[in-house]
Amino acid sequence: MASPGVEVELLVRGQSELGEVAPEIKASERQAAVAIADLEWREMEGDDCELQYGDGTNEAQDSDFPTVERSRLQEMLSLLGLETYQVQKLGLQDALQISSDSMRNWAPQAPKDLPWNFLRKLQALSAEARNTTMVLDVPSDARPVEKESQMEEEVIYWDTVDDISADIYSFSELPTPDTPVNPLDLLCALLLSSDGFLQQEIVLRMSLCQFALPLVLPDSENHSHTFLLWAMRGIVRTWWAQPLRGAGSLREDSVVLPRAPAFAFVRMEVSSNSKSQLLNAVLSPGHRQRDCFWHRDLSLGTSPREIADGLVEISWFLPSGREDLDLFPEPVAFLNLRGDIGSHWLQFKLLTEVSSAVFILTDNISKKEYKLLSSMKGSATKYYFILSPYRGKRNSNLRFLNRLTPVLRMDHSHVLVKVSSTDGARFVRRVRSIVANVARSPCRRVSVEDMAHAARKLGLKVDEDCEECQRAKDRMERITRGIKDSEAYCREELRLQGELWRKVARVEKELCQAQWAGDPPDKHRAELRLRLLELRTQQSSHDPARGLQEFIAGISCPSLSERQYFLRWMEWGLAWVAQPRPRPPPETVLTLRPKQCGAGDLRELRPEPLGVEHFLREMGQFYEAESCLVEAGTLPAGQRRFAHFPGLALELLVRGLPLELIDGSTRSTPLHWITGLLKELQVRLERRSRLVVLSALGVPGTGKSTLLNTMFGLRFATGRGRGPTGAFMQLVAVAESFSQDLGCDHILVIDSGGLIGGTLAMAGERFELEASLATLIMGLSNVTVVSLAETRDVPPAIVHAFLRLEKMGHMPNYQFVYQNVHDTPLPGPKLWERRPLLEQPAEGSRAAAQVDRQGDGLRTLAALAFCDPDKQHVWHVPGLWHGAPPMAAVSLGYSEAVFELKRCLLENIRNGLSNPNRSIQQLLELVRLL
Q1: Taking the CB of the first residue and of the last residue of the chain, which one, N or C, has fewer CB atoms within 10 A?
Q2: What is the pTM (predicted TM-score) of this model?
Q3: What domains appear along the chain, each with residue ranges and CATH number?
């Protein structure tokens, strides 16, 4: 082993060679350092360096701490009004119901308002969600000084290392109603008070805002920290995967599955360099600063943390295939531990076991820190130090770094010095270079699932390990294990669909047309009814397949939580079990929609992905066939086997699952099935059964589903190839305290498949199908949102629906929404730009006139819909993304515009500008009529 003096010399020389600003050490100081190092080295050789760490601290010394921590957590929960949700957790439906707050951009007046305001902003995908604060704020110069244990960015100069008895009374007390709450405390308190499904929603929407996500949730009350695997499982990201040879391709996957290098950033004692700011800079290309990780220079960043120490956050860099934006050639995970590693040793141990490299930020390395880190001897992880030394602590730092060099297998390149005079941009490039070099070399690559496995070994709780979740997963795997090809599975196992269902739909359509026309004669209608009965009998001859029986058992189990777990597992299992489909290049996918001329062709060529709706559709067909036989008198009502199916499906609707209203394959409505569902809904809602129906129609790829999801916190499928091909409905509850004012108890939201515009829609049968779909949906609706890609792009099927509904005397309140689908923001349409949209005698009007054989088809949309162009019927919504995906966040302009649209829609409902609310019986009659 080299002498300590030689090591100091090498280390100092190495720091200068890094190109960073290293403090100069005078020759006399260096000689003194060598002498002291020799002495302390001999002393430490005799020290007992074995430490016993429990959950972050020495158990023997801190036996009184748990009581203090419990009090701190309970005080925080009480302050935020969340103490009542510690036994019965806050659920997703509680957070999403519509109240008077949904119609106003309100500021919290008291700490108890903070969680609800945060949830509202997060639902709207607002980047301002983390700026949630009260109106009554204490001036920044009057706020208490932050505790040392929570400092990441400020320097506290103790007179001596052991002077821990400094004025502890200058530290902050617990928050009071007049002091701000740290956003990380608010997040932790809310997650600790939420069930797994609301946690999932919170984390999903945080990911869309490009916020760093909670990975390990600290619980200082019970000393039982939770690894949030389940909460992240539903997050799906798309990125550019570049293989070693050949052309790259887009990969789409859940963030918990792919393996990638992970880099942890931690603090040891005090650091005057901010980890979070450094991480944000590393993740930001050029001058495009990203604030993935919260830090003190953001609003409320200096508020003291009370319960969030020990939180581990994660964020990813995902390549887009663009050289000017891609900082790294492959996905890279970044982990951030809040608080000091000595106080959160369990979390630090986890990070060392899953990371390719750990960056330790500190201003001081003493004997205590040496003992901490020397216990990591033998670790395969690479360690890097980022130093900003205390005044007078430079030599001490060097001495102990020399001791750690062989222990942690470091060299001079593993030590970086950053002081106030350091070039910040150059330093960030240096850190990026280290990350890139480690990622390119043979290094540890882990998935979030792998991290959860390591967390279990260390004794951390994993949220996905509860019995109900695991039973639901096992049931899902029994269903999906045998699925190799989605189309083959549908053909062989879901036998009531496919060609048999198409034949039924054709006969029903022909019978409906014959009944309305009154011609041909009764004989032909009788033949059609006989043919329909034969087809239904053929359907009834089948029994539910094994997979469907398992599915029915899954949604029938007594435990509500297990049912919800099962449905989520089914969604993911069906999404990823099939072979991955080829993906087009990024320039066609990372935009919000394809070029208009090709939208229809893309949708027609892509097979419909297998989903939960196929199983529910199969249940619906069993119910339809059985109902048809009962009506015909060929099956006694007492022998029905599937009469309970609508009740099972209704439970899913009430719990937030979208249910199919119009079949996407045949564009037909299973009338008996929908009738059964609505009747069950009427029984379920009882006195609170006043409904308003809100629907969205428009061109494919214009963001209809994303718009509805953002407004109401819904779960309609989004993304290329996942949007609805028919129509789906979800139920949104109105708070009882607000239902009288709003005039309804629930809002039934309908999301429809895209309607093709231009000459593509003139394809005969396709146009008739789309026109029928638009007429049905708009006819059921009190409010209709028409989503457009361009100001002149009104689908002909919608014009046809307006014509039909005007003849019937039914005209919903409608809003045209122009969504900017480009990366760069465009100005909203001015008043003179609205008139062409509303006054165009569109080709769709001609098409509709030909279908209806009307002579007055050439009418303006304004005259047709009684639209006053001076009123706000046309909305401009800015582009969804701020920047370029996959690293782009939702733009603030988008969330603000969607909130204003939502407020307008609810205002119209409250003021009676839409058709009056309907009872479910009226809705049933409308379904039959339309």
Answers
A1: N
A2: 0.84
A3: 1-46+221-241+250-298+307-463 (3.40.50), 466-580+611-660 (no CATH), 690-916 (3.40.50.300)
